[in-house]
Amino acid sequence: MARYVAAIDQGTTSSRLILFDRDGRVACVDQREHEQITPRAGWVEHDPKEIWRRTREVIGGAMASCDIEAGNVAAIGITNQRETTVVWDRETGEPIHNAIVWQDTRTADLVAELAGDEGVDRLRRDVGLPLSTYFSGPKVRWILDHVEGARRRAEAGELAFGTMDAWVLWNLTGGADGGVHATDVTNASRTMLMSLETLDWHQPSLDLLGIPRSILPEIRSSSEVYGEAAGTALGGRPVAGILGDQQAAMFGQTCFDPGDAKNTYGTGSFLLVNTGAEIVHTEKLLTTVGAKLGPDGPPVYMLEGSIAVTGAAVQWLRDRIGLIEEAPEIEALARTVADNGGVYFVPAFSGLFAPYWREDARGAIVGLTAYANKGHLARATLEATAWQSREVVDAANAVADVPFAELKVDGGMTGDELLMQFQADVLGVPVIRPAVTETTALGAAFAAGLATGFWSGTDELRERWREGARWEPAMDEAERERQYRQWKKAVERTFDWVD
Q1: Is 324 helix (H, G, I), strand (E, B) or coil?
Q2: pTM, 2 dp
């Protein structure tokens, strides 16, 4: 009898396999890192073959470590780093170029050219996204333009494109020997090539970027049986769930209703707000698909605020400034002072993402006096994470007619209780951390388990979710708004730094 659901979590720096039991608890896990390839400044690549090799290894490693047979696994879900782009030969399965990672900025000139006189928002009403190096479309165009013979082969139907979910799915279900070439609506919504309304490829976007439809995967729901795994320790099991990593974290947090919100704190942070059936447009946030359960299920839409630097600011204090030796030390250092001493740190190391989208911004530490010490700088670094999240929440509240009553949180920085309390203080709502913090993989497992009947529905998933910790707001509203005004002034000081 099947007692587990497996989740493949193909991330930016590593791949993992996690097995969850019926209560949504981690049964076993295996993880392997892969190489970060940086051939030039601003270029970031991964070897797709290495990623598939690591995926096979973590499948075998996790199954062996728990001594679990394939028959005990009801289904397999996939979650993945979004926007990272790979193009491969359909007949041989060989990638024609390294995968171009979501962080890569080589397409900046192309994006400016495509924007032209109509600007970066020329496709936004249809696809929910601005023209940006962040998304997959320009990366595909770059590969077709720069790999010899690629465009001719693409137009002849010889090549396949996919984000990493599609690459893993294709290989997992047989590869060149009958592999399924498909993606789900959440990943497709991050390519800049999918219509939010029709959930099909958007022909005007394909025409603008010069991408032939023949290379694109089939767009399917986030929870259905796509095919059967072959050639690994999970051979014969149905692959039945796909969600991009941030949508998977949203799903793993059981944010199923309009107004539900979660924030994932990592190198950067990603705050998503469920807007239900409503497609909400704003220039400050991204509009994306949160999930679609089953081929006939309705899509659920989200607003997303991407924050470029949160945990990375702590890493900067550790690695570049030498203020701390280990990242968790920042909380103790920040607790040596009662407040920030008037110091604000805006970590706009390579511009600001949501809600400003200012590539000309650069980092600034302001409000320094002779009184300030390293504890104040540590505290200002943590507070910057909370203030940036507040700005994204405000931007969502300004355009979405949904109630915002609490924030569910996950990611590495949620272990910092000082930060979590300050986050609750500046938002004025409770901040809640789940008992199971592997929410990204759990979301993919939930989607696969729903498709195969392992779980009966979203009501049962809510029952499986358990609260681990809660922080209630304790700051006076007048003081909260005073500090917020100071933060806003600090942010303004970062603008127009790059000519």
Answers
A1: coil
A2: 0.90
